[in-house]
Amino acid sequence: MPKILGAATAALLSFGLGGCIGTAGVSTWEYRSGPGYETTRIQESRIQADPVQGLTHEACTSMSERQIAASGHVSGGGLIACRSE
After folding, report:
1. Bridging pattern class, strands 37-50 and 22-34
2. What does residue 15 show for φ and ψ, rounded to 5 degrees?
3. What's the average model confidence in pLDDT over 21-33?
4. Looking at the domain covering 21-84, what would its CATH class be?
5. Do 29 and 51 contact (CB within 8 A), yes or no?
6. Is 41 in contact with 60 (CB distance < 8 Å)?
7. Of 79, 78, 23, 14, which Cα lies nearest the Cα of 48?
């Protein structure tokens, strides 16, 4: 019985690992501020490998800005841009 269980476990593991997806990524973050403003910029890049799609790459940049008037009024906006290969 242990030999059958061991063989079944090995077959299940090799099938599971054959369909494996791997991902690696890098992220950088930058923050700047001064009188009346704040800016944040984040860049992320990710490579993914899977048996169906092969190697894919995605890179995204997000940026947000906030301005603070002397009156205390806060305004701002943001932008996210991504590309995939």
Report:
1. antiparallel
2. -65, -45
3. 87
4. mainly beta
5. no
6. no
7. 23
